[in-house]
Structures are given as C-alpha cells and as structure tokens.
C-alpha cells in the first residue's frame, strides 16, 4: 500500500510550549488511520501542523511532495482536506452555500458536478440544501463539514473529533457514512478521536498519542483488543 502521507519527526507547539515531539507515521492509499488520545495529548495539534496552520519542524510529504514551507492554502491545493474540530459551518449560509464555499478553488464549470458528488456522499443533506446551516442538527452540521471538505476530492481528508457533541446513535451513523465513503471512493482519512470505540470500528490502523508522543501502534482490531487501550479509552 503506497503512502499518501509520510510524517517524520514532526515537532510542533504554541510559542515556547512544545506539544508534539518527533512524531512519525504514514497513511496508505485508501486507508483510514486513527490517532487516539486524551485531551491535551496533541491530537488536534497534529492536524493543525499537517495543515500548515501552525509552524512545525520535521518532514510532511503528501504523495511524495514535501509540504513543509508551504502555506495552508498551498497544501489544500495539493490535495489536503481538513474537517476541523467544532464543525465550523457558516450558520447564516445555506447548506448549498456552505458547500460552494468548500469549492471556491474549483473552476466554475466543475462546481455543479462537485455539488452533485457531495450530495451523493451525504444524501441526507440534499433535501436541506436551502436550509441555513445554523438550523441543522448537530449530526447534519458534522455531515456538512465533511461534505464541504470533500468538495475538491482531496487525496487525504483530516478529521478532527467528528463525534464531538453528538449523540451515540448519530455518531454511529456518521462513522458508518465515513466508512462507506472510504470503501466506495478510496479516500484516505486521518482521524483524531477520543471516542475510541466507534473510531476503531472503521480504522485500518491506529496510533495512541500520549504527551505528544506515539506510545502504541497497531491495526484497528489489535488496538481494540489491547488491554491498556480497553482500560484507558473503552472503559472495560
């Protein structure tokens, strides 16, 4: 499985505070990789560093193209999509307008097909296309955030805590959709998540992050069956 993303010795933080310490991992073609960890472990910082939203040392390559030294918008043009923590939809804009915001970099003639593709991925959003995003349920807003990030068909989609604030049933439905999208489109995904139980149901591989370092790596089933992961993240 050829790597979509290769990360070596990634170190990042905020001011004088170092949060990530020489983290390294890969994401293969068509693979879902999850990063698990408690609050403050460095999960969101990892995605922000990969996206170019904060300065970082080390190497980050997307399909062999080095991203370090490139701005966030340049990384997006190379095929890095990001669905941030907290959804971040534009509440006063309609679902359709939110999706169009995700496709601003597309040539105008490609936007209708991209919209059709987004609604095909999340058919629940199609009847809501003229509704303001602020009037959607939490689950619908999260689907909109993911659909917007997929408007440009990125090579790699970064997902930051997509289950945050969602009811268990809604979380299960969202992750089922993510698994289906991955299976049908082979979109590679890097997912950071506190809800290990649901994340490991769709992950091919995963890493446990503690205090800015990767301390455990395995396949989804291996991590789900690991005693320390079960105690710390699955509550069993």
| Structural class designation | alpha/beta
Cα gyration radius (Å)? 17 Å
- The largest sheet has its strands arranged as 6-7-8-3-9-10
Rough outline? globular
| Cα separation of the termini | 33 Å
CATH superfamily: P-loop containing nucleotide triphosphate hydrolases
Residue share in β-strands: 25-35%
Please estimate the helix content. Answer: 25-40%
Q: What integer is the average pLDDT?
A: 93
Counted by DSSP, the helix tally is: 9
Number of domains: 1
Quaternary organisation = single chain
Give unreliable regions as ranges. none
According to CATH, the fold-level topology is Rossmann fold
The CATH architecture: 3-Layer(aba) Sandwich
H and E order: EEEHEEHEHHHEHEHEEHH
Q: How many beta strands in the DSSP annotation?
A: 10
Q: Could you walk me through the main structural features you see in this protein, from its secondary elements to its overall organization?
A:
Helices cover 36% and strands 28% of the residues. The protein has 9 helices and 10 strands. It has helices at 43-51, 72-77, 95-102, 111-121, 138-149, 168-185, 196-202, 220-225, 227-234, and strands at 3-14, 17-28, 32-36, 56-62, 65-66, 80-83, 156-160, 188-193, 205-210, 213-219. A 6-stranded mixed sheet has the order 6-7-8-3-9-10, with helices on both faces. Strands 2-1-4-5 form a 4-stranded antiparallel sheet, covered by helices on one side. α3 (95-102) packs parallel to α5 and α6 packs parallel to α7.
């Amino acid at each position: 499985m050829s790597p979509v993303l290769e990360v070596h010795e990634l170190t990042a933080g905020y001011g004088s505070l170092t949060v990530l310490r020489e983290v390294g991992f890969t994401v293969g073609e068509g693979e879902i990789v999850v990063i698990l960890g408690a609050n403050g472990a460095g999960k969101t910082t990892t995605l922000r560093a990969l996206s170019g939203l904060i300065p970082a040392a080390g190497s980050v390559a997307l399909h062999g193209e080095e991203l370090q030294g490139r701005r966030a918008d340049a990384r997006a043009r190379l095929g890095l999509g990001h669905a941030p923590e907290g959804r971040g939809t534009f509440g006063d804009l309609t679902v359709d307008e939110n999706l169009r915001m995700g496709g601003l970099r597309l040539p105008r003639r490609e936007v209708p097909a991209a919209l059709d593709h987004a609604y095909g991925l999340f058919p629940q959003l199609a009847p809501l296309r003229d509704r303001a995003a602020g009037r959607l349920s939490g689950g619908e807003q999260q689907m909109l955030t993911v659909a917007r990030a997929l408007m440009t068909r990125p090579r790699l989609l970064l997902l930051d805590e997509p289950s945050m604030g969602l009811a268990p049933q809604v979380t299960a439905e969202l992750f089922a959709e993510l698994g289906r999208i991955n299976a049908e489109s082979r979109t590679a995904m890097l997912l950071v998540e506190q809800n290990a139980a649901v994340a490991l149901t769709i992950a091919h591989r995963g890493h446990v992050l503690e205090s800015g370092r990767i301390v455990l790596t395995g396949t989804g089933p291996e991590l789900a069956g690991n005693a320390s992961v079960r105690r710390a993240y699955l509550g069993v």
